[in-house]
Structures are given as C-alpha cells and as structure tokens.
Design brief:
It is built from six helices and three strands, in the order H-E-H-H-E-E-H-H-H. With about 140 residues, the chain is mainly alpha-helical. Helix 1 crosses helix 4 (about 65-90), helix 2 (about 30-35) packs across helix 3 and helix 4 (about 65-90) crosses helix 6 (about 110-120). The protein is globular, with a radius of gyration of 15 Å.
C-alpha cells in the first residue's frame, strides 16, 4: 500500500485513523467503544494498520498515528469535513451530516472533494467548528 493511498482502506480502518487523528492516541478499549467493535477486532485492526505502517501500536497500551498514517488521516479528515459542510448546506443537521459523511468519506475521490471544496468557496471549518486541512497534500497541522 502506498503511504498516501486511501483506496486500500476499509471503513473500520478509515474510522480508526480518523479517530486517532482527532484524539492523538487511544487505548484499544477506547477505540472498541468508539467504533462499536469487539476488543479482539480492534486488536486485529491495530495490528493490520501497524503492519501497513500507518499506526504505532503497543499492545494493551494504545495506538497513535505514524507519520504516514497522519498523512492519510488528514486526507480522510478533509474529505469528511468538506462532506459535512456540503450536507449541512443541503439542509441536514450537524450530527446527521457527520453520520452521513462517515458512511461515504473514504469512498469519494480526492478530485471530487476538491471540486466540492472549490464550489463551497474553500471553507476553513466544518459545521462543528473543527478546522479543515488546507490541502490533501499539505503538511498543515491543526
């Protein structure tokens, strides 16, 4: 897997990276509760992401993003937050927009997201007030 490739990720991998981006680091139990997955599934997920070089994982202690994982997570976060802005502009409530964005953000191409971003006049924050990374390829930190 290329370090910047999102297409090779499934929903749970993508959500795990997004949560780690937002929280910095998390213990396996916290991730299991947040993703509504079993602890054994989370352990397998973290091991898989560690093998891909996307997370730094210490069993029982926790996980955080690697440098490569952070780059991918920024892309995921940007997609998610831009979709949230779009969905709120279409009339959804903030929490509903977040839920809907979570269902599709990892499936939408970077090209489409950039078109939506431009059409929305380059928003800097999502409806929840969180910053949107400036570009998918930038090293912008929140």
């Amino acid at each position: 897997m290329r370090r910047s490739d999102i297409s090779g990720l499934n929903w749970s991998e993508k959500e795990c990276l997004r949560l780690l981006y937002d929280k910095g680091s998390m213990k396996p139990g916290e991730l299991a509760r947040a993703l509504k997955l079993s602890p054994s599934t989370i352990t397998e997920l973290l091991q898989k992401l560690a093998n891909k070089g996307l997370v730094l994982y210490e069993r029982y202690r926790g996980a955080k993003l690697s440098e490569g994982g952070e780059k991918i997570a920024k892309k995921i976060v940007k997609k998610h937050r831009i979709l949230e802005v779009l969905f709120v502009n279409l009339g959804l409530a903030n929490d509903e927009a977040c839920l809907e964005a979570s269902k599709i953000d990892y499936l939408v191409s970077e090209n489409l997201i950039e078109c939506i971003y431009k059409k929305l006049n380059y928003p800097t924050k999502c409806p929840c007030g969180k910053r949107i990374p400036l570009s998918l390829s930038s090293s912008y930190d929140e």
